[in-house]
């Protein structure tokens, strides 16, 4: 009887594990369905090879900054920057941006990596570059910062919240003020606008269309059509 009970328990555990695995697989398939990443099939002398589209673009030295910027996104982008520099430090990297921004520290990590590597970086906004993403757009190499005609750029000061004792809230408020000063200094460096103008502009959400972004110094050029292929993939 004890053996039979143990066997039944073992079968139940196996069934539970199988159900959990099936649920996990279904969840994975659901995530893939909602976050679909196309595959590119290439024929080689050894047969066909499949790449996800972002890996294929990386071979052309193209990095895509898509969606919210958080620590995970930041780590992936930094790894790509370091990899491309290790391959050909003298060749440019092309960064395509369509992002609402995100965590300030994660964005600053990407910014620092862009300034750290030797490879020149051209930036191109397709869609929007808001908040931290606007700083990454502005941080491209001089003369190599572009956006498409209907791009939207938005700048503002850091946003945060705090709870706890009054002393804890004060510490967080001082840190937000410090980050605001850091961002003002970086925008000043890349846009060549004076500090007071930048501080006033960042006080509230400030939206710019493509021509305004060029006037403000976030980008150097608004491009109406695709550049020569040799410029994109050189």
Automatic annotation (TrEMBL):
Keywords: Hydrolase, Protease, Serine protease. It comes from Raphidocelis subcapitata. The active site is at 131, 156. Pfam families: CLP_protease. It is an enzyme of class 3 (hydrolase). One of its GO terms (cellular component) is chloroplastic endopeptidase Clp complex. Its EC number is 3.4.21.92. This is ATP-dependent Clp protease proteolytic subunit. One of its GO terms (biological process) is protein quality control for misfolded or incompletely synthesized proteins. NCBIfam families: PRK00277.1, PRK12553.1. One of its GO terms (molecular function) is ATPase binding. Belongs to the peptidase S14 family.
């Amino acid at each position: 009887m004890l053996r039979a009970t143990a066997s039944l328990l073992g079968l139940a555990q196996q069934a539970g594990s199988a159900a959990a695995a099936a649920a996990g697989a279904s969840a994975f398939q659901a995530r893939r369905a909602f976050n679909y990443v196309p595959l590119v099939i290439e024929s080689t002398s050894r047969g066909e090879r499949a790449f996800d589209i972002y890996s294929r673009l990386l071979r052309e030295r193209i990095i895509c900054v898509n969606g919210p910027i958080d620590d995970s996104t930041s780590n992936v982008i930094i790894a790509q920057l370091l990899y491309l520099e290790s391959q050909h430090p003298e060749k440019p990297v092309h960064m395509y941006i369509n992002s609402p921004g995100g965590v300030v520290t994660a964005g600053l990590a990407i910014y620092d990596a862009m300034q750290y590597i030797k490879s020149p970086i051209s930036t191109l906004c397709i869609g929007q570059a808001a908040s931290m993403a606007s700083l990454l757009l502005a941080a491209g190499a001089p003369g190599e910062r572009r956006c498409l005609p209907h791009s939207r750029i938005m700048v503002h000061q850091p946003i945060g919240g705090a709870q706890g004792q009054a002393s804890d809230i004060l510490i967080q408020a001082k840190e937000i003020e410090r980050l605001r000063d850091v961002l003002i200094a970086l925008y000043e460096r890349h846009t060549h606008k004076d500090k007071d103008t930048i501080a006033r502009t960042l006080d509230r959400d400030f939206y710019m269309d493509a021509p305004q972004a060029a006037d403000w110094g976030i980008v150097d050029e608004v491009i109406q059509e695709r550049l020569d292929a040799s410029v994109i993939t050189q």
